[in-house]
């Protein structure tokens, strides 16, 4: 998770990985959320800065957004696999009391 604060020109990263950083950088030119233009910027950044294997994984990650699914189909000519959101380990964890 991360976000960009346009008012202070600050990027906050909760994960220090390239894909998260590129995701946020793709938001910088315009505040257009997860639009088609954002997906295209992100795809291009991934192609430029990630190795081939990481790039393929990152392209699949974009497909969690509708704009990313449309771009994936346009670029690769096929529907992406169904996105499976990871369930946090904290969802079913119960507090322990002593």
Write the layout of secondary structure elements.
Layout: E1 2-5, E2 10-13, H1 18-25, H2 36-49, H3 52-62, H4 66-76
Antiparallel strand pairs: 1-2
Helix pairs in contact: 1-2, 2-3, 2-4, 3-4
Structural summary, described in words:
The mean pLDDT is 85. The chain has a two-stranded antiparallel ribbon with strand order 1-2. With 98 residues, the protein is mainly alpha-helical. The chain has one domain. It has helices spanning 18-25, 36-49, 52-62, 66-76, and strands spanning 2-5, 10-13. Strand 1 and strand 2 form a beta hairpin. Helix 3 (52-62) crosses helix 4.
Mean pLDDT: 85
How many independent structural domains? 1
Separate helix tally:
4
Largest pleated sheet: 2 strands, antiparallel
Spatial ordering of strands, largest sheet? 1-2
Portion of residues within helices: 40-55%
* Low-confidence residue ranges: none
Classification by helices and strands = mainly alpha
């Amino acid at each position: 998770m991360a976000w960009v604060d346009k008012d202070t020109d600050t990027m906050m990263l909760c994960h220090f990985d390239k894909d998260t950083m590129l995701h946020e950088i793709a938001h910088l030119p315009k505040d257009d959320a997860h639009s088609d233009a954002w997906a295209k910027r992100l795809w291009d950044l991934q192609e430029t800065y990630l190795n081939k294997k990481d790039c393929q994984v990152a392209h699949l990650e974009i497909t969690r957004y509708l704009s990313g699914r449309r771009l994936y189909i346009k670029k690769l000519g096929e529907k992406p696999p169904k996105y499976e959101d990871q369930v946090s380990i904290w969802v079913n964890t119960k507090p322990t009391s002593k």
